[in-house]
Amino acid sequence: MSEFTIVALSAGLNQPSSTRLLADRLTGAAVSALEAGGATVKTETIELRDIAHDVVNTMLTGFPAGKMPAVFDAVTSASGLIAVTPVFTTSYSGLFKSFVDVLDNEALTGMPVLLGATGGTARHSLALDYNLRPVFTYLHADVVTTGVFAATDDWASGEDSLPGRIERAGGELAAKILGSHRAGPVDDYASVPSFEELLGR
User: Fold this and answer.
1) Measured distance CA(127)–CA(194) in Å, rounded
2) Strand, coil or helix: 104
3) Cα–Cα distance measured from residue 74 to residue 85, given in angstroms and rounded to the nearest whole number
4) pLDDT, tens digit (0-9, with 9 covering 90-100), for 84-124
5) Cα(79)–Cα(111) distance, rounded to whole angstroms?
6) Domain spanning 3-198, CATH architecture
7) DSSP H/E element including 83
8) Which residues form the NADPH-dependent FMN reductase-like domain (predicted)?
9) 150/119 Cα distance (integer angstroms)
10) Helix H segments across 77-132?
């Protein structure tokens, strides 16, 4: 039986927040789709709000600070990533961008990624494709086709309901995870011969 890990990044500034709620819903949809295929799934949600000081310190010093080494490890070793940010002034939040800025440029290469965003009105929905998607394309991530934007009014059911979009996007992420050939983190010492091998024993 296959086992996968999904990590969700939530850049919401409040607790609770609609950004975290969307991240949880997207995670649930992806997990359901994977489990329907017989997979075992582990999940982890990282609230960027909780590590904001560590993000800034890492940016200023150039070295992972505080909880950042564990966060980097969780993100880079995940089978799939869900990234959700609030939209301010038609773009992702400064906290979200700061976190992305301290990631290694090759950390997400080939990583299946599902993008989500929240905002007050649907007028901000284009931020997903004009601001958020290009960032992850630059990082060579494998971004799913459906991004999910949730305005305040979207939490009420409608013809093109938010739950339907969440389910579709979660299914797309699950499909990419199942079809991913991403090698994952490289162990720099995996091919180093043992002491006995060096001595020819």
Assistant:
1) 52
2) coil
3) 19
4) 999 988 889 999 999 999 999 999 999 999 999 998 777 77
5) 7
6) 3-Layer(aba) Sandwich (3.40)
7) strand 80-88
8) 5-155
9) 6
10) 94-102, 127
Please tell me the number of Cα atoms within 13 Å of 101 on its side-chain side. 17
Let me know: does 12 contact 20? Beta carbons within 8 Å: yes
CA distances (Å), origin 92, targets 106, 117, 120, 152, 178? 21, 8, 13, 17, 29
Length in residues, the chain: 201
What's the whole-model pTM score? 0.87
Domain boundaries, the chain: 3-198
* Contact (Cβ atoms closer than 8 angstroms) between residue 51 and residue 14: no
Which residues are 4's β-sheet partners? 41
Angstrom distance (rounded) from CA 135 to CA 97: 9
- Number of C-beta neighbours around residue 177 at 10 A: 27
Residue 55 burial (10 A CB sphere; 0-12, 13-18, 19+): buried
Q: How far apart are CA 48 and CA 67, in angstroms?
A: 11
Distance between CA 80 and CA 114 in Å, rounded? 8
